[in-house]
Amino acid sequence: MQKASIGTRNESSLHRALKFQYAGQGGETEVPAGDFIADGISASGEYIEVQTGSFAPLVKKVKDFASLGKVRIIHPIAVTKIIKMHNEKGVFLYRRKSPLKGSAWDIFDALLHAPLLPLTKGVTIELVMLDVTEIRVKDGKGSWRRKGASIKNRELSAWHEKIVLKKPKDYLTFIPFRKGEEFTVSSLAKKAGIQAWKARRALYVLTKMQVIKRIGKKRNAWVYIK
Fold it and tell me: Hey, how many other C-beta atoms are within 10 angstroms of the C-beta on 204?
């Protein structure tokens, strides 16, 4: 079967930095493994995969790697993002801070279409909280959300904390309720200080993982327990 790889031609500086950081001294990057190519493999033999977006494209790849050894998925989350805008000739135009702030809850966006991936034996997910600088070019070829500006690179500006999710029970740290205490999307959003849509996605993923249970309805709201 043909080997598959994300390739390195359009690899961001952020992705490259994380790949080398986690492969570590004595490790390797861009390593053929099974029917795919891993971002890296550490000296201890752990496969490294850096994923900034949805985990859905990783499902087959990670299962393949997991049949060979332990796997660590690195998921960078931008706590703070600085945007540097250039014109098509590369001339710097301006710098601004994005109003969007990442949090550990963003993992449930990544897992929305791959909620069973954390249950794969030997798989660890590590959230890396970072400050990121995003380089954009006003070329009219980018998303309408960015008013046509294209993203040319993402750079790591600063490290913050790391959150390691190794076992299903580790995900219970997201649920600030006692065992057996009932809660809803609304009550979780209020207690955790997050938006309702984030709470809804988290509960969907955690229910699929069987970390929590949906036990019924009160009025129009689904009720959950640990």
Answer: 16
